[in-house]
Amino acid sequence: MGSVVSEIDGREAGLLGIVLLVALVFFFHNIPQDMGDDGVTFGISAMLINRAQETRSSAYEVFRDAVHSVGSGSRAMSTDPLRFLGFGTPLWTAFVALAQKAFGVTSFWEFFLASLIGFLTVVATYFAGRAMYGRAAGLLSALLLGSSLFFVIQTRSASGFLAIGALMTIL
Fold first, then answer.
1. Contact indicator for 19, 137 with CB cutoff of 8 Å
2. Would you say 74 and 97 are in contact if contact means Cβ atoms under 8 Å apart?
3. Nearest-5° Cα angle at 148, 142 to 154
4. Counting C-beta atoms within 10 Å of the first and last residue's C-beta, which end of the chain has fewer, N or C?
5. How many Å apart are CA 157 and CA 166, to the nearest integer?
6. For residue 49, which of 70, 33, 66 has the smallest C-alpha distance?
7. What is the mean pLDDT of the chain?
8. d(CA 32, CA 27)
9. Which range, 57-66, 95-104, 105-114, 134-143, has the best average confidence (pLDDT)?
10. Which helix (H) or strand (E) holds 27?
11. What is d(CA 100, CA 33) in angstroms, rounded to the nearest whole number?
């Protein structure tokens, strides 16, 4: 990748800078304070995974204990879906768990991490498009993804697993 970066001339660097600036504004300007259901679910999964690590228990045992302690018994849900909760998108859940360990349990870091993954996806899209179809295709691809309302809203709602899927596909 170092050779690809060194081949960027001044004009292309300027255009890429504008595209990435647009993406930065869309992803990081006024990060929301409230998250959607996905953000809450993965935040809870990450907290429980951190608890499992601290207590040296299996993640399933911690999920099961959390479910059974929710209510008086009549409100407890089945643990069957929780066998897979947090493991359907293990990389995203691991990133959220690491962020919680490093910075504490706040929604800001989950939003920031999701926005960062979305931005990195735009950067990777530029390099993939450039390598496959040329400079113009790379710039256009990055601009379209970085300004795509659907992609930005989904990523900024702390649903980083959507962006990480796209990033891993591109890489």
1. no
2. no
3. 115
4. N
5. 16
6. 66
7. 75
8. 10
9. 134-143
10. helix 10-28
11. 16
